[in-house]
Design brief:
globular, 225 residues, single chain, DNA-binding transcription factor activity, 68% helix, 10 helices, Arc Repressor Mutant, subunit A, DNA binding, mainly alpha, 2 domains, 3 strands, DNA-binding, Four Helix Bundle (Hemerythrin (Met), subunit A), three-stranded antiparallel sheet
């Protein structure tokens, strides 16, 4: 009898995860070039799954596949981040409004509520990494609850660039207590079905996050990530 356990990950999926880690930690720096053979040796696998992973990561905007030259880790400029945040602000605000219109039961909002609790616990411990992970979960769940498949797809192609910028600036910023308050306010607006309030609060939240991020990048002369 076949067990209900999930299938083991393919080498391609493992390569995607490992390369993402190397990019986010800066072990594969922005602008650096790497041959498939080099990356395959580093990951301890053949070139085929590395090539497949590179194509996936290219679609996510993290690197560029160069014919017969391997890959280049794609730099992200301050201008890129402004544009990405502008798009995310509109799409996530739409998702917040859409979620509020659905009269979702409390059970459907359990994960959104849990992410906020996890963010509060992380702040209490001044654990910025744990806070960032919970924050990512909040935004992903908000977009999922909105139920618009195209919004989910477009946002999914941009979140890795945001994570990369957040990873660089996480220790530079003050503790994000206002961000937690914003998330709680968005959740409350969704609970009571106030679509316009959910939209407005989330838009202001994302615009504030953009301001903090872009200010830090410029203050520290981080023109490219």
């Amino acid at each position: 009898m076949v067990s209900g356990s999930s299938k083991p990950k393919s080498n391609s999926a493992i390569a995607v995860e490992e390369l993402r880690k190397l990019i986010f930690t800066g072990e594969l720096p922005a602008g650096s070039d790497h041959l498939e053979s080099e990356l395959a040796m580093r990951l301890g696998m053949s070139r085929t799954p590395v090539r497949e992973a590179a194509l996936t990561l290219e679609g996510q905007g993290l690197l560029e596949v160069r014919a017969r030259k391997g890959v280049r880790i794609r730099p992200i400029s301050v201008k890129d981040m402004v544009e990405i945040y502008d798009v995310l602000t509109e799409l996530e605000s739409l998702a917040a409004a859409d979620a509020a219109r659905q009269d979702l039961p409390a059970s459907d909002l359990k994960e959104l509520s849990q992410t906020i609790a996890d963010m509060q616990a992380a702040l209490a411990n001044e654990d910025r990494e744990a806070w960032a992970l919970a924050d990512d979960r909040f935004h992903a769940e908000l977009v999922r609850l909105g139920g618009n498949s195209r919004v989910i797809s477009i946002v999914g192609r941009m979140v890795d660039q945001v994570r990369r910028a957040k990873a660089v600036t996480l220790q530079m910023r003050p503790l994000p207590t206002q961000s937690n308050a914003d998330h709680e306010a968005v959740l409350q607006a969704i609970r009571v079905g106030d679509a316009e309030k959910a939209r407005q609060i989330h838009r202001a939240h994302r615009e504030g996050a953009k301001h903090v991020l872009i200010t830090l990048l410029r203050q520290h002369s981080l023109h490219m990530l």
